[in-house]
Amino acid sequence: MMRMMKEGQLLCFALFLLCLIGVIQRGEAYKNYTVGDSLGWFDNLAKPGVDYGKWVSGKTFSLGDFLLFNTDSNHSVIQTHNFTTYSTCDSQGDDNIQWSSIEPNSTEVLPVTVPVPLIKEGPTYFFSGDYDGEQCMHGQKFEVNVTHGQGLPPSLRDNPDLAVSPTAANAAPGPANPDAGDDSTPDVISSNYDFSHPKKVPSEDSPSDGEEDGSKTKSNVASVVGSREVFLVGFMSGVLALLI
Questions:
Q1: Whole-model pTM?
Q2: CATH number of domain containing 92
Q3: Which residues form the Phytocyanin domain (predicted)?
Q4: Are residues 118 and 64 in contact, defined by beta-carbon separation less than 8 angstroms?
């Protein structure tokens, strides 16, 4: 009887450790999402293969995550929390946030990367408002539901710049070729990342300090998570061995 009770207690403890591994995996880092992956942020006339509904599917977006829009100066990034504004592609909505305020110019098209932090829970909508909403009507829009996750990091929670509408200063020069994607930006970044000043995306030929820091951050996060997992899995294996 005592042996059965002991085995039950050990089994419960092992299951607790298994759950703890899942918590560690979920709680270590915020994320950067490159919108559209290698296709970038364009309407389906410019890039026939874009499907932002498909891109969003299966992803979990949380407070403190960043969306990175790789596009050009002829496509804009507008955020709204108003579904009517979004569904009508209304770039003049009162509650719109214009993250890229560069006016379209067909004679000089420049690559641009626009980083957008997710700072409010619930549904939020993105679209391009250039050319009277034509780009939005041709597929350049999507919606995401932002969950609480870990909550905002201090660099976003206490950032006064986010209390007003962003300006063109938030738009960083992008890769020379938007098709190349955002290989220099880590998919996972640690909670002490400087969210208030997103790094400019360097070219592949000239890696910058920001790129090196991003790579180190990703490596550090992976090593921390990995070492804890190895310890917990090894410990749990030892506990389970006692039950055999």
A1: 0.60
A2: 2.60.40.420
A3: 31-148
A4: yes
Structure tokens given for 218: 């990703």
Q: What is the dihedral of CA 162, 123, 132, 105, to 10 degrees?
A: 40
Give me the residue label for tokens 């909505």.
93
Cα distance between the two ends of the chain: 16
Tell me whether residue 16 is exposed, middle or buried, using C-beta atoms within 10 angstroms of its C-beta: 0 to 12, 13 to 18, 19 or more.
Answer: exposed
Q: How many domains does the chain have?
A: 1
* DSSP, res 38: G
Range of the domain at 198: 29-208
Q: Are 72 and 176 in contact (CB under 8 A)?
A: no
- Spatial distance between the Cα atoms of 89 and 127, rounded to a whole number of angstroms: 7
pLDDT tens-digit readout, 26-77: 555 899 999 999 999 999 999 999 999 999 999 999 999 999 999 998 899 9
Contact at 8 Å (CB) between 80 and 96? yes
Please indicate, yes or no, if residue 163 is contained in any of the structural domains. yes
